[in-house]
Fold DYW domain-containing protein.
Amino acid sequence: MLACYWRNADIQAAKSFFDRMPVKDVASWNTMISGFSQNGLMGEAEELFREMEEKSMVTWNTMISGYIENGRAEDGMKLVKKMMGLGIKVNDSTLSSLLLGCSNLSALKLGKQVHQHVVKSPLYLDMTVGTSLISMYSKCGVLEDAWKLFREMPRKDVVTWNAMISGYAQHGESDKALNLFDEMRRKGIKPDWITFVGVLSACNHAGLVNLGIQYFEQMQNNYGVKPKPDHYTCMVDLLGRAGKLNEAVDLIRKMQFKPHIALFGSLLGACRIHRNLEVAEFAAKNLLSLEPTNAAGYVQLANVYAAKNQWEGVSKVRKSMKENKVIKTPGYSWMEVGRVVHEFRSGDRLHPDLESIRMKLKDLEKKMKLAGYVPDLDSSLHDVGEEQKEQLLLWHSEKLAIAFGLMKLPPGMPIRIFKNLRVCGDCHQATKVISAIENREIIVRDTTRFHHFKNGTCSCGDYW
């Protein structure tokens, strides 16, 4: 009954039933802790956890997972330390949950701390934990450590190979991803559907259209892997970025199942790059029919209108958003300095070091312009004058984060930034210039991939 109440998110009924239970076994306590955690009620989960006299391994893992899922990886790590202090044996599920949290939060220092615990424990050779570490390092932007771990692992299953292939793909190391896929096949490991998501992503990030089509066909004909929505999203993105928008639309129409939101989102993104209003309107219409409150759909369509200087179209989209009570997701970036994660929003007014950051940016802007940087005004999607557009671009969240990193991190240390939206053209160009004039490696992860900026160039080759 408890599980049934939680499935229906009936919190009060679950609490009332639990309170009336004459005998409460460990399983019922665990169900309550899990239910509270899944509904974001970590205070209630913690209270029950403290009250429990007898805790199973599932109890500890449920609590740790709850912290992770609610963005409290640090508290999850503290609980792991407490377990170890009490002599409770940590298992692969515990550490994998914690590493997943580190990946999602891009908390590299915490991830390294977990790694240190793993090295000292019998789980060092555990395949699940090893794979989670590879994924964590890849998603935190330290690909060389992921590769080192991969090479050292004595046993690897298809999940391990997938983690490394996907890591290379996300970092734009397409040749390495595809070479690893070939090596995997030579070793007789059968690829699964996730393998091909990584392979197609690698082709996508490098613009390898013909090779991507070839792998898409091989996947079905040679390996019997039926295409899933993720494969079609990769293919639409691959074709769209390469300017083959009509082919992308044809592929969507030939699909054997109903198109999904991500598919039209990818198509809309490609329309912005190639300024194709006709296909953009088709993609937006379909996306918003599936999810009328999808902010990204409205924003992407407005972006295409703005790129073509059709401000009346932008105005109509914004009016439609207001009528449908759709709220645009604000752009923000974050980075870890010491043990603190600093967050920056575009046009930030809240960060305590904002005055120093803006002074640093003004100084950087002068140096950048002397080095040949010209602001990409098309990246400012506002119908305002050029001077105001330049100001808006200068306060973009990743630029604020870069300036802060230059101020706070020791010379020579890479600056690692994470962003909730796709990097805009102006920030991409500016970051290339900053990496050269400051002689600093800058690593940026946006929603689609990693960009490694060094000596005035980017690992993506300006194709993203």
